[in-house]
Amino acid sequence: MNAMQSTGTDGTKRPVDVLSGNLRIRLAESRAEIEASQRLRYRIFVEEMHAKPSEAQRACAREFDRYDDFADHLLMFDRTLGDGPEAVIGTYRLMRRSQAQRAGQFYTADEYDITPLLDYPGDIVELGRSCVAEAYRSGSTMQILWRGIAEYVLHFNVRIMFGCGSLHGTDLEALGPQLSYLHQNHLAPPNLRPKALPDRYEDMNRLTPEAFDPRRALAKLPPLIKGYLRLGGFVGEGAVIDYEFNTTDVCVVVPTDQVTERYARHLTRNEPGGRAEN
Predict the structure, then answer these.
(1) Are strands 240-242 and 247-255 parallel, antiparallel or unpaired?
(2) What is the DSSP string of 131-146?
(3) In terms of DSSP bridges, do strands 123-132 and 158-168 run parallel, antiparallel, or are they unpaired?
(4) Contact, 248 vs 174, CB < 8 A?
(5) Residue 30 main-chain phi, psi, to 5 deg
(6) From CA 103, how far away is CA 209, in angstroms rounded?
(7) Each residue of 169-217: pLDDT tens digit?
(8) What angle do CA 183, 184, 190 make, to 5 degrees?
(9) How far apart are the first and last CA of the chain?
(10) Which of 13, 99, 198, 207 is geometrically suited to a Cys-Cys bond with 180, CB 3.0 to 4.6 A?
(11) Could you tell me the CA-to-CA distances from 243 to 51, 73, 150, 190 in Å, in that order?
């Protein structure tokens, strides 16, 4: 492991500090770093994926909402560009139960009834606003990002991760094979199953099993959703169209057992990179 400073600007030990080559993962430690993540989100969600920004967002070229002030922002830095706002090349927004209480609710509650998750014992964390700059999108980059999430989960003893996973586009017929595959093969058990709110509910089970190729449907899923499934994740009942973001959302639920187990195995191997130690 690389040995570098792993304390934040306030002198306390960072809950997350992962190093791998020129990349570093840690939580945002300043308003400037949060705003850098919002600028990255704007470039990807608005300019690349054609989400519809508000006038306030367009004016400052940042994608933001009211939950940003309550959440933790997991950031990926390219250390060849620096170790501050100028170097942010990836981000993930994380919000735990206590933070959602201060915000009034979880973001996902605008689309899904998440009562089964709220009733679950132990801490839960909502994952959202995930994006990585185009030049850095690779399987290895996502593995590093997941190591950061695993450290966060371990530090805060999180039992369940969840959030809205997005499929690009709003054409339900075109997305029928993917939605049907998820419903038929990865539906969450009843005690962990969110359900789309009645006024936003779209049936996911659109095709019979004989009407599509499950392997092709799986292959066409976004890499992030496939990653959640590989970690033992499930989906809730019903999809939601988000016209603002030009996406069709499913609610993903991931028990953290496999996340922490895989990270623990990683720590027992002699690999380059890893958590920064004093």
Answers:
(1) antiparallel
(2) EE-GGG-SHHHHHHHH
(3) parallel
(4) no
(5) -155, 160
(6) 41
(7) 999 999 999 999 999 999 999 999 999 999 999 999 999 999 999 999 9
(8) 65
(9) 11
(10) 207
(11) 8, 25, 32, 28
Region for residue 54 given its phi and psi (left: phi exceeds 0; alpha: psi -120 to 50; beta: otherwise): beta
Q: What are the backbone angles phi and psi of residue 35, rounded to the nearest 5°? A: -65, -35
For residues 26 and 136, what is the distance between their CA atoms, to the nearest angstrom? 17
Token readout for 236 is: 């809730």
* Helix locations, the chain, DSSP H: 31-41, 55-60, 97-103, 115-118, 139-156, 176-186, 214-219, 223-230, 257-267
- Domain boundaries along the sequence of the chain: 17-275
pTM of the model: 0.88
**Residue 73, token pair as written in the block:** 């922002």
- The letter for the amino acid at 39 is R
Best CA proximity match to 51, nearest among 203, 145, 166, 197: 166
The residue type found at 76 is M
Measure the CA–CA gap between 245 and 51, rounded to whole angstroms.
Answer: 4
Q: Is CATH 3.40.630.30 the classification given to domain 17-275?
A: yes
Q: At what angle do helices 139-156 and 257-267 cross, to 10 degrees?
A: 110
Write out pLDDT tens, residues 226-278.
Answer: 989 988 999 999 999 999 999 999 999 999 987 777 766 654 443 333 333 33
Structure tokens at 46: 């608005």
Angle, helices 139-156 vs 223-230, to 10°: value is 50
Query: Do 6 and 92 touch, CB atoms closer than 8 A?
Result: no
